[in-house]
Automatic annotation (TrEMBL):
The name this protein goes by in its record: Protein kinase domain-containing protein
Gene Ontology MF: a single term: protein kinase activity
Organism, scientific name: Brachypodium distachyon
Region (Disordered): 246-273, 308-333, 516-535
Chief localization: membrane
Cited InterPro entries: At_inactive_RLKs (IPR050994), Kinase-like_dom_sf (IPR011009), Leu-rich_rpt (IPR001611), LRR_dom_sf (IPR032675), Prot_kinase_dom (IPR000719), Ser-Thr/Tyr_kinase_cat_dom (IPR001245)
Transmembrane segments: 278-300
Keyword terms, alphabetized: Leucine-rich repeat, Membrane, Repeat, Signal, Transmembrane, Transmembrane helix
Signal peptide span: 1-26
Biased composition (Low complexity): 323-333, 516-531
Length: 693
């Protein structure tokens, strides 16, 4: 610890020593400066005095001097002395200055290294000119809260390949949403609410999109599958013809992706029907009545088997949401809109089917139609056909052993890789476990890995997931030095923290069970009632389902390296752990575990296996008390751009501490509140960090 302290002191000294000598010569040419001043004059409606009033002077280089602060005042920010573009203008933020002119993109984009342009909250008129494509390094463009009109210049906006944020909300833009934005792969926020956009919403294929808001326009048609993960508030207030998930009225026809899924289903169905018919004809022709009898017998017995399997498994639940039959589209959409109250709830159907013979039929396959989940279609297809014997027969590889069981990688005959968690937990009844897994399977969020199937017998429970080959957060954070993985930097860790918080908050609110968010309600332990399975989610007697074992080894990475929470609800820890009522103690314990996860992300230190992170929290508290906050952070975090982000690191640390130990007299935060705090930090980070040059 002492060594780290000396190091930190050395860094501070080095920075201080550098300060007076790190002077930068401004690098913008006279032409650029003249152009920028012209841009501002046009923005002010041709008022030649405006630039002077705001402090822009073409005969003074804004970026000559010691660093970020410019000679043109607060509206201009330069690159830091340490950045490659030092001496150039990085940000122009002309916000709420009452500017009522037009945007002269050609003059603006004369600045060669511009990253951030914000013109929000003025009274700008005219169009967003196509010339903005010349600002090729732009990462953030805010023109919200003006009177801009006309169509968005789609093809030129889509040339801004580095764009992270595009906010055109609260203007008078019309025309269609630019489908070309799909080419801007890194786009995180597209905000276009309160305009007059018409037409349908393009199927933007942008996995990194975090906020997509097109409410209060005049859009019509179905919400594309890829955007259904955004909440209803993203789409509200559009033309009556807009429809579909997450919360609007059902579309007359299913959206394109659903259609193809159903099409596949139908194809398969008709194919198998055809095969059967051909078999029968063959039977007639070749072997006559004997074979025919055999075929009929075969079909009948298979049907009866299915019937038996389904009946043995509580008909009530099945009736509530079984819509395996592709012809019952109406039932499907009805159940869709009924369950669409929460943002990510897309379960079109969860079918339970007995895949194996009656004697070993305890394997329950949780099948969902629709593809909005993180699970790959190959794994989902494999799970659909899964039989218990396959799991037993296929080669298995031990992935890890934990306190409550082990996990294995199993490659089933179809070639798909599955992860099987084997839980040794006799404290939960089969029925309760089954109900829990079914509820977890129905609440779906892109940051939570859904169970594909489960098996339960008295002493042993298996839960089947898709196998994700990119490893866990624990492995990346604490993996061996030789591993090829680069250490996670601050933006990556913050992203993981936010995604996990979102997923957990969503799961908590969909699986809370009693509809109230209070952690201190009812102190009597609620027992699952017998009727619970029938109505589930909305049932007042349902017990909240907590994750139970949130930790870095349960944060996995998808093929696109997005974090994904695994093993949700597999383990129900003993209720006394979190204190409080049994209904909510599990949720409280999750919040605590999330806090420990944040500490792990921030410090890069391993949580002691048996200490539940208490050790780590104590260490962090003691270090903070001595006001050496920077010392707790992982060195990998401090190496790059540290000065810029440290404030946000401290904020995240404070969130972590609140999760781990709420101060006396203060209610512990709920997961939803925690997610709000983390996302606020993300937004701040997005805006003030703007972009890596
Ligand atoms: C711009 O700055 C120069 C040098 O500081 C000064 O002489 C000149 O008056 C300024 N021009 C305006 C329009 O403020
Ligand atoms: C998306 O951004 C808008 C505008 O900044 C904000 O009002 C909204 O709350 C955000 N939505 C989400 C889900 O973050
Ligand atoms: C909205 O769209 C509908 C159908 O395209 C059109 O009839 C209506 O005039 C539009 N309303 C506005 C305010 O643009």
């Amino acid at each position: 610890m002492g060594r780290i302290r000396i190091l930190a002191a050395a860094v501070v000294l080095a920075l201080l020593a550098c300060w007076p000598t790190c002077e930068v010569r401004g690098k913008e040419t006279d032409d650029v400066l003249t152009s920028l001043v012209e841009f501002l004059a046009t923005l002010a409606g041709g008022d030649p005095a405006a630039p002077q009033r705001i402090g822009w002077n073409a005969s003074v280089d804004p970026c000559a001097g010691t660093g970020v602060a410019s000679q043109w005042g607060k509206t201009v920010t330069c690159f830091d002395t340490t950045e490659t573009n030092a001496g150039h203008v990085k940000k122009i933020e002309l916000e709420a200055l009452g500017l009522s002119g037009t945007i002269d993109a050609a003059s603006l984009c004369a600045a060669p290294a511009l990253r951030v342009v914000s013109l929000q909250g003025n009274a700008l008129r005219g169009e967003l000119p196509a010339g903005v494509s010349a600002c090729s390094g732009l990462t953030h463009l805010y023109v919200d809260g003006n009177r801009l009109s006309g169509p968005l210049p789609g093809s030129s906006v889509s040339q801004l390949r580095k764009l992270l944020v595009l906010d055109v909300s609260r203007n008078d833009f019309s025309g269609e949403l630019p489908a070309g934005l799909s080419a801007v792969h890194g786009l995180k926020r597209f905000i276009a609410n309160d305009n007059q956009f018409v037409g349908t919403v393009p199927d933007f294929n942008l996995p990194s999109l975090e906020n997509f808001t097109v409410s209060n326009n005049n859009l019509t048609g179905p919400i594309p599958q890829s955007l259904q993960r955004f909440g209803s508030e993203s789409f509200s207030g559009n033309a009556a013809g807009m429809c579909g998930e997450p919360a609007l009225s059902a579309c007359p026809l299913p959206p394109p992706n659903d259609e193809t899924a159903d099409q596949d289903e139908e194809d398969k169905e008709s194919k198998s029907r055809r095969t059967r018919r051909v078999l029968m004809y063959l039977g007639y022709a070749l072997l006559g009545a004997v074979i025919l009898g055999f075929v009929v017998y075969k079909i009948c017995s298979r049907k009866r088997k299915n019937k038996l399997g389904r009946k043995s498994r509580g008909g009530k639940v099945k009736d509530a949401f079984d819509s395996s039959d592709p012809t019952t589209t109406t039932t499907m959409t009805a159940s869709k809109s009924a369950s669409a109250a929460s943002a990510y709830s897309l379960p079109a159907s969860v079918e339970r089917s007995a895949a194996a013979a009656p004697s070993t039929s305890s394997l329950v396959v949780l099948r969902r139609s629709g593809t909005a989940s993180v699970t790959s279609t190959a794994a989902a297809a494999a799970a659909k056909e899964l039989r218990f014997e396959d799991l037993l027969k296929s080669p298995a590889e031990l992935l890890g052993r934990g306190r409550y069981g082990s996990s294995y990688k199993v490659v089933v005959p179809s070639g798909a890789a599955l992860a099987v968690k084997r839980v040794k937990d006799a404290s939960v009844s089969d029925d309760e476990f089954r109900r829990r897994m079914e509820r977890v399977a129905r609440a779906r969020h892109p940051a939570v890995l859904p169970p594909l199937a489960f098996y339960c017998a008295a002493q042993e429970k298996l839960v089947v997931y898709e196998f994700l080959a990119n490893g866990s957060l624990a492995k990346i954070l604490h993996g061996s030095i030789e591993s090829s993985q680069a250490p996670l930097d601050w933006p990556a860790r913050l992203h993981i923290a936010a995604k996990v918080a979102d997923g957990m908050a969503f799961m908590h609110s969909s699986l809370r069970g009693d509809g109230s968010g209070s952690y201190s309600s009812s102190s009597t332990p609620s027992t699952p009632s017998s009727g619970e399975a029938a109505t589930d989610g909305a049932n007042a007697n349902a017990v909240a389902v907590a994750h139970g074992s949130l930790k870095s080894s349960n944060i996995l990475f998808t093929a696109s390296m997005e974090p994904c929470v695994s093993e949700y609800g597999v383990i129900a820890p003993p209720p006394q752990l979190g204190g409080g009522s049994s209904r909510s103690s599990g949720l409280r314990a999750d919040v605590r575990a999330y806090g420990v996860l944040l500490l792990e992300l921030l410090t890069g230190k391993c949580t002691a296996a048996q200490g539940d992170g208490a050790e780590l929290a104590r260490w962090v508290t003691s270090v903070i008390r001595e006001e050496w906050t920077a010392e707790v952070f992982d060195r990998a975090l401090l190496s790059r751009g540290a000065a810029v982000s440290e404030q946000r690191m401290v904020q995240l640390l404070q969130v972590a501490m609140r999760c781990v130990e709420a101060s006396p007299g203060e209610a512990p935060p709920t997961m939803r509140e925690v997610a709000g705090m983390v996302n606020a930090i993300v937004e701040e980070d997005d805006r003030s960090l703007s972009a890596e040059a």
